[in-house]
Amino acid sequence: MGNASRPFRRIAYFLCLLSVLLLTEGKKPVKPKCPAWCTCTKDNALCENARSIPRSVPPDVISLSFVRSAFTKIPEGSFLLTPSLQLLLFTSNTFDVISDDAFMGLPHLEYLSLANNNLQSLPKDIFKGLDSLTNVDLRGNAFNCDCKLKWLVEWLGSTNATVEDIYCESPPEYKKRKINSLSSKEFDCIITEFEVFQSLPYQSLSVDTFSYMNDEHVVIAQPFTGKCIFLEWDHVEVMFRNYDNITGTSTVVCKPIVIESQLYVIVAQLFGGSHIYKRDIFANKFIKIQDIEILKIRKPNDIETFRIAEDWYFVVADSSKAGFTTVYKWNGNGFYSHQSLHAWYRDTDVEFLEIAGKPHLILSSSSQRPVIYQWNKGTNEFVKRFDIQDMEDAYAVKHFRVKEDVYICLTRFIGDSKVMKWGGSAFLDLQRMPSRGSMVFQPLQIRNYQYAILGSDYSFTQVYYWDAEKAKFVKFQELNIQAPRSFIHVSIDKRDFLFASSFKGTTLIYKHVRVDLSA
C-alpha cells in the first residue's frame, strides 16, 4: 500500500470505540456503559448514526470515531473530558457549525480527520493548541475559497503536519484549484468604508486642511455666520474641537497658506471685500494685514494656492460679470496682483496642476468650456493654451494622478459629470457619471486608495473607488449629505477622516475604516 493508505491502516489499528465515564455510587465504581449507537472496546469507540457527542467518556480513551452522525454541530470544548485522545475521526457527516474551540484541550492529538463532511469553510482557530498534530485529512469537502478561508492557506504553508491535497469547489474562478498551492496574496480581503464620526452643527462651504506648528488643522467657511472656523484634534477626547475663528460677512472661502512657518489665511467674501489675515503666535489670534482689491475681485468663488520654483502664489476665481480671475504673488511682506486672467467670464473654479512637469491652471466658467493656461518661464505668467472640448457648463475641475498619468474630474450641475485622462496633447474622455444637482466632484487619495466623490443637491452623494484593473472608477458607497460643496481628507493620529461640507445641513466628519474580511 502507498503512503496515502497509511493513515487508514492506523485508523483500522485503533478501531475507534467510545467509552463512558465511570459513574460512582458512593465510593464504588460502576461499570462503564457504551452508548447504544456505538461499538466499544477497551480504549476505542466507533459510533455510527450518533445523536450527539457523548460527554461520559473515560479520560484515558485513545481514539474516537464518528461516522454518518445525526448531529450537525461540534460545540466548543466537546472533548475537554478526553485529554488523552490521539486520534479523532469524523467522516461522512454533515456539519453546519464547527465552533472555533471545538477541539480545545487535546494536546496529544496526532491524527484529525474531517474528510467527506460537506464542509464549505473552517473556523480560524480550529487547530489552535493542537501542537502534536502530524496528520490532518480534509479531503472530500466542498470548500468555498473566499476570504474566510485565507487563514487555511496561510496555515497550510506553515504547518509541519501532513495534509492531503484539497480543492476549492467555489467561487467559479477558483473551482478545482488546489488549496495547498494557493497563495494568501491571491485573496484581496481588505475593504474600506466611510462611517460617520462626528457632526458639526452648522452649514459650510469650503473645507481645507493645513499643517502648522507640527500639527494638522482644519478651517471651515461658514457662509451664513460669516466665519472661518478653525479646528484642531483633541488627543484626549479623541475628536475635533474649535479653537479659533475669523469673523466676517458672507464668507465663501477660507484658504490657508504657510510661508516660512508663518500662517496666512485668505478670506473671500461676497460682501465687504476679501482680506488676508496673519496668525500672531504671541497674541494667539488672527490679525488682518491686507485687503484684496475690490475692483478685480467682486464675487469670489474659489481660491487655489501654489508654488512655482521659490515663489508663492494664490489665484482667486471671480464669478461676477465685471470681475477678473486674478493671480497674486507673495513679495516677502504681502501679496500683490501679479496677473489678471479670463476677464468677464464668470469663473466658478480654479485648479492648479502640473502636466508633463509644467505648471498649469484650469479655469471653469458658467459661460464657456474649461480653459487651460500654461506657465511661461520667460514672462513668468500664465498663457492660454486651449479649451477642454465637449464640456460646456462645467462648474469645477479637480485633478488626480494614478502613477504617471494625469486625470481630471469635471462637475456638471445638469448632465453627466466626467472623468478625463491626459493623452499627451489634450484631455480625452474616460468615463461619464450621471449627475443631477452636482457642484462638487472631488478626487481624494487616502493612503493607497483612490476615490472620487460626486455630490448632489437632490440625491445621495456617490463615492467611487478606482479599480486599477479596469482603470476606471466603480461605485463604492452612498453618503447622505445635504447639498455638499467640498470634501477634504485629513490624516491625524494614524486615523483618516473625510470632511464633508454642507450648504443646507450639518457639516459631517467621516472616518475611513479598513475592514479585514479574513479576520
UniProtKB/TrEMBL annotation:
UniProt signal peptide:
1-26
Q: Where in the cell is it found?
A: Cytoplasm; Secreted; Synapse
Stretches assigned to the LRRCT domain: 141-190
For this protein, the record's PANTHER family field holds: LEUCINE-RICH GLIOMA-INACTIVATED PROTEIN 1 (PTHR24367:SF17), LEUCINE-RICH REPEAT-CONTAINING PROTEIN (PTHR24367)
Q: Which GO terms describe its cellular component?
A: cytoplasm; extracellular space; synapse
Q: Which Pfam families match?
A: EPTP, LRR_8
Question: Would you tell me the protein name for this molecule?
Answer: Leucine-rich glioma-inactivated protein 1
- Transferase: is it a keyword of this entry? no
Q: Which UniProt keywords apply?
A: Cytoplasm, Glycoprotein, Leucine-rich repeat, Repeat, Secreted, Signal, Synapse
Native source species: Coturnix japonica
- The keyword Repeat belongs to this UniProt entry's keyword annotation: yes
